[in-house]
Design goal:
single chain; 383 residues; alpha/beta; TIM Barrel; nine-stranded mixed β-sheet; three-stranded antiparallel β-sheet; 16 helices; 12 strands; 32% helix; 16% strand; binds pyridoxal-5'-phosphate
């Protein structure tokens, strides 16, 4: 018998495929959770001790992916709290990315020159235990109102340097399609906005939300990219695959941002399988994020060297398309920087000595000329 049938024997197929049924039947308390999954002592106390800290919420679909017998199940680790989450270490921050000092209006984070993050909603289909924007998704700040979204649009109208809007939250695909379309129309009405991105975990946690109507609605706002968040190959189920393929088939490119988490996906083998499997559903790996220095998440952080080591075990050994950028979002608001293995062995004025992915040495000679200006573009700039 499938886990779904064991956990939700009364749910009809139509109910299971209805994303609103999924939301109505989400598990939102420790008592509820314990009826479905035998909790470990660490989890039971984790639920209690984090109850006042952060929301608990797991869609029936995501719940059905949890391995009931294994405390290290990656789905379980991402959705069921443990005690460590309730303890804040010295140096951990409530606003780890220093976003609040870059919020000209409540629903916008404007940190980079030409792009912004728009906070469209404060809730999610599953509350990730590794959420680093929980000051917003905990509901502590209060929801994001229509007026606040209008204020964000007004700011964007004034700021013509913004050519890329990342719609996130919370999970923007929890908005009704009609409401989402309304918001996207407002963004698209700004002539300087070239691309729109939607940051969402819906394909992972509530894939039935991605119906044909949604995919076709999103296509109309092209160029629009969906950026999703698979962290382990176990999340790539037939349902998740259908959701991603539906978007791509409709003409919406899908990218993936994973977070490296200790003992959840922190090995080259696990990351490689995840990235390769993403590509099989035409989802392109974009970032692999170093875990932010956020409150209660130390137990999930990996040493910086681990990410670099993992990249080294990908580059050259698998498709370049499967190799994400390893990003560290600097504590305090410095923005993202990337890390990569150093393949340079020696720099000389006329040549550089490299080691390749197999550790063999090769030399690349410098050209004689170094003028790299582009005459065509220099001359034709004013055309
Ligand atoms: C990550 C991020 C972006 C987008 O950065 P890219 O490197 O372009 O993907 C934009 N704004 C904020 C605040 C971010 O954290």
């Amino acid at each position: 018998m499938s886990r779904r049938a064991e956990l939700f024997p009364k749910a009809t197929d139509a109910e299971w495929r209805d994303w609103r049924w999924q939301l109505r039947n989400s598990v939102r308390s420790a008592a509820d959770l314990a009826r479905f999954i035998p909790l470990t002592e660490d989890e039971r106390r984790g639920c209690e001790e984090t109850a006042a800290v952060f929301r608990l919420g797991i869609s029936p679909y995501y719940l059905s992916l949890i391995d009931p017998d294994h405390p290290f199940c990656p789905i379980r680790m991402q959705s069921i709290p443990v005690r460590a989450e309730a303890s804040v270490q010295i140096g951990e921050l409530r606003d780890p990315l220093g976003e609040d000092r870059h919020r000209p209006v409540r629903a916008l984070v404007h940190k980079y020159p030409d792009r912004v993050l728009l906070l469209a909603v404060d809730h999610c289909s599953v509350y990730c235990r590794h959420c680093t924007r929980r000051r917003i998704t905990s509901g502590d700040e209060g929801g994001i109102s229509r007026e606040e979204l209008s204020e964000a649009i007004a700011y964007l109208r004034e700021h013509t340097e913004v050519r890329d809007v990342v719609v996130s939250g919370g999970d923007p695909l929890l908005l009704s399609t009609a409401r989402l379309v309304e918001l996207l129309q407002e963004i698209r009405s700004l002539p300087h906005v070239e691309i729109i991105r939607i940051g969402t975990r819906i394909p992972v946690c509530l894939p039935m939300r991605v119906d044909g109507e949604l995919a076709n609605a999103l296509r109309k706002f092209a160029p629009l990219f969906v950026v999703t968040h698979f962290n382990h190959a176990k999340e790539i189920t037939p349902e998740a695959r259908e959701a991603c393929e539906r978007l791509v088939d409709a003409g919406v490119p899908v990218e993936n941002q994973a977070v490296l988490m200790r003992r959840l996906n922190s090995s080259a083998r696990t990351i490689k399988e995840l990235m390769q499997k993403c590509l099989t559903m035409r989802v392109r790996p974009y970032y692999l994020h170093q875990m932010d220095v956020a409150e209660g998440l130390e137990h999930l952080r990996t040493p910086l060297a681990k990410g670099v080591e993992i990249l080294q075990q990908l580059r050259g050994w698998t498709s370049g398309l499967a190799v994400p950028h390893l990003a560290v979002d600097l504590p305090g608001g410095g923005g993202k920087v990337t890390l990569q293995p150093d393949y340079v062995v020696e720099r000389r004025p006329q040549e550089t000595v490299f080691r390749n992915y197999r550790g063999e040495r090769y030399t690349y000679p410098e050209p004689r000329e170094s003028d790299c200006s582009v005459p065509y573009d220099e001359i034709c700039r004013d055309r």
